[in-house]
Amino acid sequence: MGKHNEQQAEPRIRVIVQNRKARHLYHIEQTWEAGVVLVGTEVKSLRAGQGSLVDSYAEVRGNEVWLNNFHIAPYEKGNRFNVEEKRTRKLLMNRREIRRLAGLASQPGYTLVPLNVYFKGQRVKVELALCRGKKEYDKRSAMKDRDARREMDRAMSKRY
Fold first, then answer.
1. What are the CA-CA distances from residue 59 to residues 6, 8, 70, 133 (Å)?
2. Which domain CATH number covers 38?
3. Hey, how many other C-beta atoms are within 10 angstroms of the C-beta on 74?
4. How many domains does the chain have?
């Protein structure tokens, strides 16, 4: 069998870090997938699950997208090859996507927030979201809806 007859399997996705708080604090309007420029010790540290998206955000500068405050702990065996933990990292996206993203993110009240960092095959990817901040009453109503859904599920499980 030749290469042309074989079907390409989807690359396996393994989530490394999630930003759960972002879904509570923001209305998520739209999401994109972007690659991340990393050095070798950062990738090894991420394979060990040593990353944090707390307080991280993305911004468009010129024709490039940058991820700020993404914390990757130093790789324990990396010695002199380790880099700064919270350095600004470049995101890899299509030029057309970047232009569109710049226009949307420049509107007042919108920000770019990373939701997940994951391995897609061998590559590290970031799920980037265009977000609008929630008001306090939005957060309370979301919590109320979630609690009501839980109560209904409990009642249904007791019934059956």
1. 40, 34, 13, 16
2. 2.40.280.10
3. 16
4. 1
126: exposed, middle or buried (C-beta count within 10 Å: 0-12, 13-18, 19+)? buried
Q: Please give the structure tokens belonging to residue 91.
A: 């995101």
Contact 112, 131 (CB under 8 A): yes
| Mean pLDDT of each 10-residue bin along the chain, 160 residues long | 58 84 84 87 82 86 88 76 77 89 86 89 88 76 83 82
Q: How far is CA 36 from the centre of its chain?
A: 11
SS3 51: strand
Assigned domain for 30 exists: yes
Model pTM score: 0.72
